[in-house]
Design a protein that fits this description.
Blueprint (H helix, E strand, L loop, with lengths): L4 E4 L13 H8 L6 H4 L21 E3 L11 H7 L14 H12 L1 E7 L2 E6 L10 E7 L8 E6 L4 E7 L3 H7 L9 E10 H8 L3 H22 L3 E5 L4 H8 L6 E10 L27 E4 L1 H10 L4 H12 L16 E3 L12 H7 L11 E2 H11 L14 E6 L2 E2 L4 E6 L4 E7 L3 H7 L4 H5 L2 E8 H8 L2 H23 L3 E5 L4 H7 L6 E10 L11
Parallel strand pairs: 1-11, 13-15
Antiparallel strand pairs: 2-7, 3-4, 5-6, 5-8, 6-7, 8-10, 9-10, 12-17, 14-16, 14-18, 16-17, 18-20, 19-20
Helix pairs in contact: 1-9, 4-7, 6-7, 7-16, 11-16, 12-16, 15-16
């Protein structure tokens, strides 16, 4: 490991209920309020800004083909088919061009912006503050013209670095407790995050954004793999230390958060009774910055979500199978108006996924122009689509919407009933100023046509699924947020993810039950021609 200095940052100062789960304490410690964002000012140390690209020092790089494969399916068609893995025929083994497309569509460099003294790169997946804490690793076998092994994807020059040579997919199957999602997979993509890249700017709250960013990348990989003909699935539960060791990670600074499996269709066969011990690796790489700051609140929360051993993994899996899905806290309709939404499949975008991802940006400015109720219906449908994963019972997030300017819907606050495809109005009247205030007084939220909020009962989730549920919930929200990004872009809309809001006031606005929280917000609408700077 490259040498660098690290110093400790004291935990955030806040109050949290005694005896609550570690992740719930973390969540409450990192709440934003009108006072907290003013009492804890933070000046960015630009001289110490972390690099957003991981570069190994002593290992060679395998360039990947730069050409994008033609003829990929339309984005909306992929979204529609995401929950139907059985609809795909078995495909042949992967070639280098397909692997290159998978990595690029997941996390490749899609644009560069030149500024005085530096060049900023934008990637296929969005990131809070364009800090890109995620890294992408690939465990594969049977790829034409590439040795079986474990690789790191370097987006800076679209190349692979081999970390281990050989077939290590059985180790991932074993680490996941032989999850069915990994059976038949010839490519498994591991998504890690490096805490310091995000905490340099966002301090203790960065863990939330790292989890969301993991979901963004996982969403891209799900659709990209599907576009290339694979059966794809997200694996949330695995033995953390085993996967981190396989990738050679320094778990104090970087940790694996999710796996995405790509299967060609055939079964892998039974796992051997035992696997040879892994040789320890710790490849040296370039330091992120001159000095890293460690945030104990982040490492404590993440450690709580990690499985201590195979028994803990199986216990959580068994507990999930034995419980009903979390109840949805939709408000009873009563006398509130309900608005049926049109079938989102009635009109489909023909834009191919490769074009959608290449055009995707985080919007910085919205034009105050309306969108149609049909367009909003399609975006909301993308937000709650089912997707293959290792979770026994898929639990959809609760979705709420503040409508600023949607033709056919009065302005106000709404709860989304996904099963009934309807919006139930809970607040009446113009809320542009209110949504901007709730979102840390960001003007783009008042200018957007609509703001979509993901809500989750974190307390009940922890009771049913343990500390790991916090991690799953935030990654899932990021994944669904990326589907909103892509659906919106395919429909010609701008989108921006909002992870910073006044937590308690947002929960109060939506009249949430104790234990429930607002966990992510995305704003959508027509963009202005001038987007200014940024755009992760």
């Amino acid at each position: 490991m490259s040498s660098h200095s690290t110093r400790q940052r004291r935990p955030a100062e806040a109050q949290s209920p005694a005896g609550s789960a570690v992740t719930l304490r973390y969540h409450d410690l990192t709440r934003h309020s009108y006072d907290s964002v003013r009492e804890r000012p933070h000046t960015l140390d630009w001289e110490n800004q972390p690099s957003t690209s991981k570069r190994y020092l002593d290992l060679g790089r395998q360039p990947l083909p730069p050409e994008m494969l033609p003829g990929l399916p339309p984005t909306w068609e992929l979204l529609r088919r995401l929950s139907s893995p059985a609809s795909l025929p078995a495909r042949s083994a992967c070639g280098l061009a397909e692997l290159a497309a998978l990595c690029y569509l997941g996390y490749g460099t899609t644009a560069r912006k030149a500024y005085p003294g530096f060049v900023s790169t934008l990637r296929a997946a969005p990131s809070a503050g364009a800090l890109y804490p995620c890294e992408l690793y690939v465990c594969l076998r049977g790829v034409t013209d590439l040795a079986d092994g474990v690789y790191h994807y370097a987006q800076a020059d679209h190349s692979l670095t081999c970390l281990r040579q050989g077939d290590f997919l059985p180790y991932l199957r074993a680490a996941s407790g032989d999850a069915p999602s990994l059976d038949g997979a010839d490519i498994v993509l591991a998504i890690s995050t490096i805490w310091w890249r995000s905490s340099w700017k966002y301090r203790d709250r960065a863990y939330r954004y790292c989890l969301n960013d993991t979901g963004h990348l996982a969403g891209n990989l799900l659709l990209a793999g599907r576009a290339l003909g694979y059966r794809t699935a997200v694996v949330y539960d695995f033995l953390d230390a085993d996967v981190n060791d396989l990738l050679g990670l320094d778990a104090g600074r970087e940790a694996t958060l999710a796996l995405v499996a790509c299967s060609t269709g055939g079964p892998s066969g039974a796992l051997p009774a035992s696997l040879p011990p892994l040789a320890a690796i710790r490849p040296a790489h370039r330091p992120l910055s001159a000095q890293e700051v460690a945030y104990p609140t982040i490492t404590e929360a993440h450690s709580a979500t990690c499985f201590s051993g195979a028994a803990a993994l199986q216990e959580v899996r068994g507990r999930g199978r034995g419980n009903e899905p979390l109840p949805s806290p939709y408000l009873p309709a009563g006398d509130l108006p309900s608005f049926l939404l049109p079938d989102p499949a009635a009109a489909r975008s023909a834009q191919p996924l490769s074009e959608t991802i290449a055009l995707r940006r985080s919007s910085r400015r919205f034009a105050r122009r309306p969108i149609s109720v049909e367009v909003l219906s399609k975006v909301l449908a993308a937000a709650v689509v089912a997707y293959p994963s290792d979770q026994a019972a898929a639990v959809l997030p609760d979705v709420a919407v503040i409508v600023n300017d949607v033709t056919g819907l009065p302005p106000g606050g709404y709860r989304y009933d996904a099963a009934g495809r309807r919006l139930v109005q809970t607040q009446v009247g113009a809320l542009r100023q209110k949504v901007a205030y709730l979102s840390l007084e960001q003007r783009l939220c008042s200018d957007a046509a609509a703001s979509i909020f993901f809500l989750a009962d974190l307390q009940r989730g922890a009771a049913l699924g343990g500390e790991r549920s916090y991690r799953r919930t935030y990654i899932d929200a990021g994944l669904r947020g990326e589907l909103i990004y892509l659906a919106g872009r395919a429909l010609g809309l701008g989108c921006s993810g909002i992870g910073a809001f006044y937590d308690d006031e947002a929960a109060s606005f939506w009249d949430l039950e104790p234990g429930s929280r607002v966990i992510y917000e995305l704003v959508v609408g027509p963009e202005t021609a001038d987007q200014g700077t940024g755009g992760g």
